[in-house]
Amino acid sequence: MAAFLHRTSNLGYAAYAWGDNSSGQLGNGATINQSAPVQVGTNTHWASIAAGLWHTVAVRTDGTLWAWGGNSFGELGDGTTTDRHAPVQVGTDTHWASVAAGSWESTDVGAWTVAVKTDGTLWAWGDNSFGELGDGTTTGRNAPVRVGTDTHWAQVSAGAQHTVAVKTDGTLWAWGNNGSGQLGDGTTTEQHAPVPVGTDTNWVQVSAGSGYTVAVRTDGTLWA
Questions:
Q1: How would DSSP label each residue in 127-173?
Q2: What is the model's pLDDT at position 109?
Q3: Of the candidates 96, 115, 175, 218, which lies 20 to 30 Å from 140 by C-alpha distance?
Q4: pTM (2 decimals)?
Q5: Residue 155: beta bridge partners?
Q6: Which residues of the chain form beta strands (DSSP E)?
Q7: What's the confidence (pLDDT) of residue 78?
Q8: Cα(111)–Cα(53) distance, rounded to whole angstroms?
Q9: Could you tell me if 183 and 215 are in contact, meaning their C-beta atoms sit under 8 angstroms apart?
């Protein structure tokens, strides 16, 4: 599936999606695949959006967080494991800043979500088989749990079985599956809580793929 935002005013964007909709991940209230963009509801105050394989998550301009699609592993964060074919709010908090959706590459296994609040705290929920939630366990969660106590998270990305994030001090962190060295800590050891990727403090952006990671430094160089 694919999703994008279309600006409708200075107050935000309308959300559109298309492609596979078997779990309701397009958010249009149905489970019929769409070969052209369809609007997600009528709200025009979306600020950012992220798509996994079977679920979608988005932040509105009022700081609320919403999710829809597959929910077998609690990846929607609404306290249930019930699929949703239209957006449902994740809790009542109005301080969400950004969100990322992670999914394994099989319909038989997990999906999860990670998000940053405006106070710099990091939260995660959903499947946790490889410690990809970063809460020090491998216990799945169907509602947001805080990742550690740090208040300096800036950006986060979710891959297939691992998560990576940048802090405001420019340090890079990773956790989850590490069978291919995707955490970048010099090992292939699985990590259930964030571990630093080297000691550099000039990382600005990171993205997690399926078993690999890429990141950009403040000097414009690209690393993988």
A1: --TTSTT-SSS---EEEEEE-SS---EEEEEE-SSEEEEEETTS-EE
A2: 67
A3: 96
A4: 0.95
A5: 166
A6: 2-9, 12-19, 34-39, 46-51, 55-60, 65-69, 84-89, 96-103, 111-117, 122-126, 141-146, 153-158, 162-167, 172-176, 191-196, 203-208, 213-217, 222-223
A7: 98
A8: 8
A9: no
Q: What is the pLDDT of residue 104?
A: 82
Question: pLDDT value at position 12?
Answer: 77
Cβ neighbours of residue 116 closer than 8 Å, sequence gap 6 or more: 96, 97, 98, 99, 122, 123, 153, 154, 155, 156
Amino acid at site 158: A
What are the residue ranges in the chain where pLDDT is below 70? 1-2, 4-11, 105-109
Cβ contact 15:58 at 8 Å: yes
CA-based angle 74:151:76, to the nearest 5?
A: 15
Rounded Cα distance, 166 and 67, in Å: 23
Fold for the domain defined by 2-223: Methylamine Dehydrogenase; Chain H (2.130.10)
Q: Are strands 222-223 and 213-217 parallel, antiparallel or unpaired?
A: antiparallel
Q: How many CB atoms lie within 10 A of CB 149?
A: 7
Cα–Cα distance, 28 to 171 (Å, whole number)? 39
Q: Which of 137, 106, 204, 127 is nearest to 164 (CA)?
A: 204
- Token digits of residue 195: 């571990």
What is the spatial distance between Cα 83 and Cα 76, in angstroms, rounded to a whole number? 8
